[in-house]
Amino acid sequence: MLRHLLPLALLLASATATAETLVIDGVPRTYELRTPQQHAAPLVLVLHGNTEQGRNILEHTTWPEVARREGFVLVAPDGLNRAWADFRGHGEAVGKRPPAGTDDVKFLTRLVDDLVQRGVADPQHIYVAGISNGGAMAMSLACVRPDLFAAASSTIMAMTRGLAAHCHPSQGTPMLFMNGTEDPLVNFNGGRGTNRMMGVSGLLSTEDTLRWWRGVDGCARDDGAASNLPDRVRDDNSSVTRIGSHCPAGSDVLLYRINGGGHRLPDTIADSVHLTGMIDRLLGRQNRDIQGPQVIWDFLKQFARH
User: Fold this and answer.
1) For the residues of 155-217, what is the DSSP string, one character each?
2) DSSP summary character for residue 119
3) Which CATH superfamily is domain 15-300 in?
4) Quick check: 161 and 136 in contact, CB under 8 A?
5) Where are the domains of the chain?
């Protein structure tokens, strides 16, 4: 047993954690950085949801665990006013908004460029994964900088009409989506979220979101093979179906449909330990059958930009 635990202990100890700042247009922008022992490693930019900060990614998901285990650079930046300036249209975003004039494309791409120049990140293996508002920001980055990001993931978010109207990528980006069928904020079937206070408007359905990105990536528009994953945690009252696409080599569009899932990242740890009943009523159920960050990383790492 000890010889199995020792390499794990060394791996956990090898990660370096720092809080850093990058000034953009005179404004200090902050981010948390977790780096493995090796230099020029793959990088995953993980973007938090609305009202959150980068530390929520580090404290309430298994992203740090997966980064240590897999040996990639984990970057958890902070949106100004706990929000991201994504490309959704006026009235399509709810909750907090960043200050007027905020350019998060500039911030996030400059951040990646800085880490590449410092020898921290491998420029051929740069990825972005976002949750909710961060998912919309991840899609926005794939719209304007598909040359930079080798693949992207958006969790509990779909395209909106405004985002689609502003998205004209010069090339495709492999995309993974992870959406709940009972998400009260981001309606799986499109339109507006069922939560009157926080429901996102202008949404395309998850199915139409998949078709949109399949078109960008040169894939067939119809679903590929579907498979039901093992229902490992019965008391979360949800399950997972993996739905693929028919895409050319070097691309993919993949959906993990969280049957009965709400507006929450599927993970093997609970995203909240307090007021769980109220959070379930407000956001819906969290699926714990899969470790969402590991599933996302397994998808992202297949792709590279040359």
Assistant:
1) ES---BHHHHHT---SS---EEEEEETT-SSS-TTSBS-S-TTT---SBPPHHHHHHHHHHHT
2) T
3) Alpha/Beta hydrolase fold, catalytic domain (3.40.50.1820)
4) no
5) 15-300
Length of the chain counted residue by residue: 306
CA dihedral (32, 38, 39, 44) positive or negative: negative
Q: What is the pTM of this model?
A: 0.94
Instruction: Say if residues 14 and 36 touch (Cβ distance below 8 Å).
Output: yes
Give the H/E segment covering residue 255: strand 253-259
CA distance 256 to 228: 10
Residue type, 196: R
First to last CA, the chain: 41
Q: Is the confidence at residue 5, as pLDDT, over 50?
A: no
Q: Which of 306, 295, 305, 304 is nearest to 129 (CA)?
A: 295
In the predicted model, is pLDDT for residue 3 greater than 70? no
Neighbours of 23 (CB within 10 A): 10
Token match 């650079």: residue? 73
Host H or E run for residue 2? helix 2-14
Q: Is the pLDDT of residue 1 over 80?
A: no
Report how far residue 264's alpha carbon sits from residue 262's, in angstroms, rounded to the nearest whole number: 6
Percent of the chain residues past pLDDT 90, beyond the cut: 87
Residue that has been written with the tokens 């973007």 in this structure: 47
Q: What's the CA gap between 291 and 229, in Å, rounded?
A: 12
Instruction: Return the SS3 of 14.
Output: helix
